Amino acid sequence: MSDQRANTATPGTPPTDAPAGVVEPADEFLWLEDIHGSEPLAWAEQQNGRTLAALGTGAYDRLREQILAVLDDTAKIPDVTKRGPYYYNFWRDETNPRGLWRRTTWASYQRQQPEWEVLLDVDALATTDGTPWVFAGASLLRPEPGQPWRRGLVKLSPDGGDAVRVREFDVETRQFVADGFDLPTAKTQVSWVDADTIFVGTDTGPGSMTTSSYPRTGRRLTRGQDLADAPVLWEVPEEHLMAVLAHDRTPGFERDVAVDVIDFFRTRTHVADAAEGTADLTWRHIDVPDDVNVDLHRQWVLFRPQTDWDHDGTTVPAGTLAVAPLEDFLAGRRELTVVFAPDERTSLQGWSWTANHLLLTLLTDVASRVLVLDPEAGFTGTELPDAPELSTVSASAVDDEDPEEGDDYWLTVSGFLTPTTLQRGRLGGAGSEGEPARTVKTSPSFFEGEGLRVEQHFVTSADGTRVPYFQIGPKDLVLDGANPTLLNGYGGFEISRTPAYSGAIGRSWLTRRTAQGRSGVYVIANIRGGGEYGPGWHRAALQANRPRAYEDFAAVAQDLIDRGVTSRAHLGCSGGSNGGLLVGNMLTTYPHLFGAISCGVPLLDMRRYTKLSAGYSWIAEYGDPDDPEQWAFIRTFSPYHNLVPGTDYPATLIYTATSDDRVGPVQARKMAARMEAMGVDDVWFYEALEGGHAAASDNRQAAQMAALSSQFLWQHLAD
User: Fold this and answer.
1) Of 123, 252, 451, 648, which residue is most buried, by most CB within 10 angstroms?
2) Which helix (H) or strand (E) holds 165?
3) What is the pLDDT of residues 401-412, one digit of tens each?
4) Cβ pair 378, 362 in contact under 8 A
5) CB 633: neighbour CB atoms within 10 A?
6) Contacts for 368-376 with beta carbons within 8 Å, 24 or more apart?
7) Domain ranges (residues) in the chain
8) Chain centre to alpha carbon of residue 447
9) How many CB atoms lie under 10 A from the CB of residue 385?
């Protein structure tokens, strides 16, 4: 960079926090790790000006406004959560950029223009408080029988980051409760116990947070009590990810639940009968291996193993869903009922309980299916019919505790070219008649999809693994290698990439035209590390095997070139967070495949990632760089350390946010600085001041970041 600094550590010398035997690579840009320091911020501001000057054309401005129109459109489906007789929603638009927390009735929700009761105007609150609040959710207290839903715990972030202030709110008076619960800004876990008591995990000073920056303890806080005086009921080791303490108020099944979240894939769950105080609180461990996911619902306990589970001499394969009566299991009667067994093409993506049924959402070769199971019939069941081809379908209960509507379910359907629809149906059984799902809301169409089509392809990766990907583009696509093509992926944390309608992608890429009249091609790669084929697909790219994810992505890129869809000059890739690490490795390991790369809120410095923001929490995914043996393989996929002077790197945009307290802005800053210092001319950097890990706190900021990325890629790929 033009603004050079002296190295803050002697090259080749371990800093004081490096373990014996680990030689710290030279890092000339450690000074950029001071997130809020005046010099790093001045550097970021200078870079922002340079980047915006290069992209601030009329085309960029028009694109930003086109995307903003999608995000602000008042005809979008307002997602709702039912509590009692009301349907709650959080909404942003042009008039309300910070948003409205609001509610309506079912009769009103079904109308084209529902009548909403505004509970909290976040823009007005931000003005009153002088703080640019970002709404981060609310948790309502389930009332005593016959009483209305009234009290809520509202989470507000001052900058869009994960740290939030928690305040008690009365939805009837539509005001914060005077002398109510009010927790200062921190990464906080909260759960209602009763009208005057909550469970809290938060920052109470030294020793209260884990190395990963999340709560290490769970306290029982009584109204009017000082947080420091609240007794600690649950505590986990500092090196674990976090402690979770929650209260289940389900009528007839009241209990306290404590979870030791060891890392992203290992937990230990304990239950206790709900108690008035703490003296008689006895935790009972649900004794299964740490990598078996545990879920509780009424009398049931569900298990989903991450690896094959030897359960009393019987193997329960990874990705299976099994169920048992909770009290029987705790008493030593450990018989399981398998309700879903995976195969090589089908995985479980999620589940939801209605009053009398269990809904399972599955993927078969990344196409959705929904099963309806009946516990009274031994969890046998049927498949919901007519799932559209190459689409995503998900089912969830509307309100399993409603005495009349407990078996109602939402069905959400979305495809790359099909605007999302929200349907509602009712399952039969238990003395009631079922009703087929009918459409309640349909999202507007934001681009012309008539001349486009969706295809699914499969490619063989370097080790012989068959990898799927979706291609969306013109029906009359000319296979001459000249089509501007954007390849996107993630490949981590067992997160699946499935078909979904995006007006922003449609407007910014699929229907945009080059000077020659070509429109863009958009591609989603379902690479290992994700969850498309269950836990095994994820574990195939963990730690030392991480490069398998990058080989998969590169294989898709090469296949697009080999099939004539595009060529290096017209092929770009984008990814954020773990996807930023993915495309960072495309930059350093496969630069010959891409003409441009957009890298958002990324991990890039894998030597120091555990010391930056919440990075320590991802050791289970990537490995521990402080272990010399693990650093040996981590270094192979650390983009910051694999830059080589003189390499023909593709044009690169790296963007982040100052307020991102999950990944943080540091790694993006350092990568851009090192590339420019090496003489790479076509590298660009942008840092939003707020917005947290999303790099946006409102629709306008989100539109700006989306337009920034898309315009950068289009400028470099569409000529």
Assistant:
1) 123
2) strand 164-170
3) 999 999 999 999
4) no
5) 16
6) 368/392, 368/393, 368/394, 368/498, 369/393, 370/394, 370/395, 370/411, 371/340, 372/427, 373/339, 374/429, 375/300, 375/323, 376/429, 376/430
7) 38-68+452-717, 78-186, 190-285, 288-342, 343-440
8) 26
9) 8
Cβ 396 vs Cβ 382: under 8 Å = no
Q: Which range scores top for mean pLDDT: 19-33, 382-396, 430-444, 464-478?
A: 464-478
Cα gap 480→563, rounded to integer Å: 9
Helix (H, G, I), strand (E, B) or coil at 134: strand
Whether 270 is a known active-site residue: answer: no
Cα distance between residue 658 and residue 690, in whole Å: 6
* Strand pairing category for 300-305 and 321-325: antiparallel
Instruction: Decide if 693 is catalytic.
Output: yes
Residues composing the chain: 719
Mention the CATH class of domain 38-68+452-717: alpha beta
Tell me which residue has tokens 């994960």: 162
Query: What tokens were used for 488?
Result: 């996107």
- The one catalytic residue in 577, 638, 659, 709 is 577
How many whole angstroms separate alpha carbon 86 and alpha carbon 143?
Answer: 14
Catalytic residue chosen out of the listed positions 240, 247, 538, 693: 693
What is the distance between the alpha carbons of residues 397 and 82, in angstroms, rounded to a whole number? 10
| Model pTM score | 0.94
- Residues 6 or more apart whose CB falls under 8 angstroms from that of 405 comprise 398, 399, 426
